[in-house]
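Look over this today:
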Amino acid sequence: MTMMEAEPVVHKKKKKKNKEHPAGEVPQLSNTYQACEEISLLKKKKKKKDKKNDIRAEGDAAERKTKKKRKREGEEADVTLVVRAETVQSIPQEQEVTKKKRKKRRFEETERPAQSQSCPKESDVTLTPAPTNDEAAQQKSAKHKAKRQRKTSPAAHLHPDEMPNEGPTLDIDEGVLQELREYLPHHKLNDDVVVRKIINYDLPRFRELKEKGIPVRSGRFTVAENKRLKANVREFLALSGIESDTKLFLPHRFPDEKNSIMKQRRKLRFIHQLCAGIPRTWTTILCRAKKMCNRENYMGRFTEDENKMLTKLHTLHSSNWSTISNMMGRSEHSLQKRFNMMSSGSGVWEEEELRTLLTNVRQQLLERATPDRDGNIGSAVIRKVDLYKQLPWMTLSEKVKTRSWLQCREKWMGYLTNKMTIGGVIKGRKILEGQIQLIKTINEMVVEDVADIVWDDLTHLFGNTHPDYLQMRFYQLKVAYVPRWNTMEDFCDIIDYLYEKTLPLLEEELKNCPEEEEPTEERDSYKLSEIFPDL
C-alpha cells in the first residue's frame, strides 16, 4: 500500500517540473502517456497566447483604422470649409466679372457692325499670355481701390462747391441722360447709382410737372413748398401707422422697431409719397424734411456744459456725428456747425490771416480767369459771377487754419463788396438809391415768395455788388420798416407795406441828400489787378 501511495506523489512532482520547461522543448520521458499529456498542455498554452496576440493585433488595427478615419474626416471637413469660404468669396468677384462681360458685350454690339457667325481661322486667332502673380495682384488691388472710391461719396467730405468736375461714363441711355440734363442743367450726372435713383424717384414727377408748365426749382424752399412737405409727412404717418416723425426719419434710434419701420417705408414707397407735388430733386426734399421734422434742430443756444461735452465726445469719436448726436440729443447738422465755430478763431481778423485767405482765393480765381494776349497774369480778366460762386471754402479754411469756412466766406464777401462797387464804399445817397430801386424792382416782379427772387439779376442796383449784399440790404429793410414782419404769412404783404409806406419816406429822404457825381455803370467782368491790388 505504501508503494502504491508513493507513485502518485512522484507523478505530481514531475508535473510541476514539466511546467517549468520552456515552450517548444519536448521533455524526454520514458512514459509515452505523460509525454503526450505534456505536449497537449503546451499546445493549449500556445493557442491561448496566439489568441491573445490576435486580439491585441485586432484592437490595435481597429484603433489605427478609427484614427485614420477621424483624421481623414477632419481633413475633408477642413477642405469643405475652405472650399465653401472660397466659393463665398468668389461669388461677388464672379458677379462683377459677369457684369463687366455683359457691359463689354453690349458696347461691342453697338459699336461694331454685325459679323458673320462663321468660325475664325487659325491664323486669326491670337493667344494672350496668362497674367503672372504680380500682375494679378496689381489688378486685384486696382479693383479694390476703384471699389472703395465708388463707395466713398465726395459729398460726405467736400463742400457742395468742391464737387469734382469729371466727364460722365454711365451705362444709361443717352436720350434719358439728355432729358435729365434739360431738367437739371446745373447737376453733375457722374455717378451711375445716383442717376438711376433720379430716374426712379424724380423723372416721372418731372414729366408731369413739365406738362403743367411748372419748372424744376433749386435754392431756398418757398412757404408753399414747406407747407406741402409737412402735409406729405403727415399723410404718410397716418397711412403707415408710424407713431412720430422722429421714428420715420431716424429709425436707427429705435432698434426694436427699425425693421418694421423700414418695411413700411419700402412697401408704401416713402420717397415717392414725400416728394409728391414738389418740383425739386428727391435728395433736397429729403434733407429739407429731415431738418424740418427733427425737433433737435430747434433747441436753442448751446450751454457751456454742452460745449464741454461736445469737445470731449469729439476727442473720443472724432467726426462720427451720428454717434455724438445720439449721445447729446441734438441734430448732426447743429453739432457739426457748432464745433466748427468753436474750433475756429473769433474776433477781428489779423493781417496775416487775411493775406493767407486772399492769396489762396487768388490762386483759385487764376484758374477761371482768361489771361491777356501777352500772358500777363495781373491783367487777366475774370467774370463777375466767378468771383463769388462755387469757390472751395472748405479747402480755403483748411489753408487759413484759424477760421471756419463760413467765416472765410463772409470775410471774402465783405472784401469783395468794397472792390466791386463803384467808388469803393456804399454810403449816403448810394444806399438810398439802391433801397428805392430794390423795393420798386421786387414789386414789379410780382413774386409770391422771397425764394422766387433771382438776386443775380439785381446786382447792379447798388453799383455792381454780389447777391449776398442785396439779400442783407433787403433783410435790413424788413427789420427797420415793417412791423411784425416775421408774423406775416404772405410775402406779398411785406412787399405791399414797403411799397406803400416805406418807399415815400425813402424818396423824401433822398431829396435832402447831396448829389454825387460818380458814374454808375454796370460791369460784367473785372481785372484781377483791380480785385487784388496789393498781391
Summary: The radius of gyration is 45 Å. Residues 296 and 329 are 7 Å apart (CA to CA). Residues 349-422+529-535 form one domain.
